[in-house]
Amino acid sequence: MNKFVGKHVVIAALSVLAGYAASAQAADVVGNAKAGQGKVAMCIGCHGIPEYRTAYPEVYRVPMLGGQNQAYLENALHGYKKGDRHFETMRAITASLSDQDIADIAAYYAAQNSSSKSNPDK
Ligand code: HEC
């Protein structure tokens, strides 16, 4: 009996937490592409290199960010920050980003298009 009740309490607590996490992420944070431009300096070293390959510590491919869907980028960054997505460097980097930073950066990258190909910040 106790065990049964305990299980329900845990499930209820988890669903409250899940709801909280979802609403915290969906809070009224509006991305600003201009503000984002000033926040991507630390991303360019990896995302934005020719051929999207980095040579350290070994050759690996880096995803292109410019022109990707804004919500997708935001979700990806939150995912790394929360640990749902696993990639050490991305996790370390997103740890220092606020929700506003993430929204701004996502807005900035989403605003890139094929005509901004030569954009050095891409
Ligand atoms: C040290 C290199 C490095 C730096 C610096 C870096 N990234 Fe990444 N990033 C990667 C790699 C490699 C991946 C692919 C990881 C994987 O497979 O999950 C990635 C993945 C991503 C993804 C997921 C893309 C997708 O298509 O799923 C996003 C979004 C992203 N990075 C944004 C950023 C932003 C924004 C910054 C700067 C705040 C940044 N990254 C800095 C290497 C880097």
TrEMBL record:
Entry keywords, A to Z: Electron transport, Heme, Iron, Metal-binding, Signal, Transport
Keyword field contains Mitochondrion: no
SUPFAM superfamilies tied to this protein: Cytochrome c
Domain Cytochrome c: 31-113
PROSITE patterns: CYTC (PS51007)
Domain of life: Bacteria
Molecular functions per Gene Ontology: electron transfer activity; heme binding; metal ion binding
InterPro entries: Cyt_c-like_dom, Cyt_c-like_dom_sf, Cytochrome_c_Oxidase_Subunit
Signal peptide: 1-26
Protein name: Cytochrome c domain-containing protein
Source organism of this protein record: Paraburkholderia sediminicola
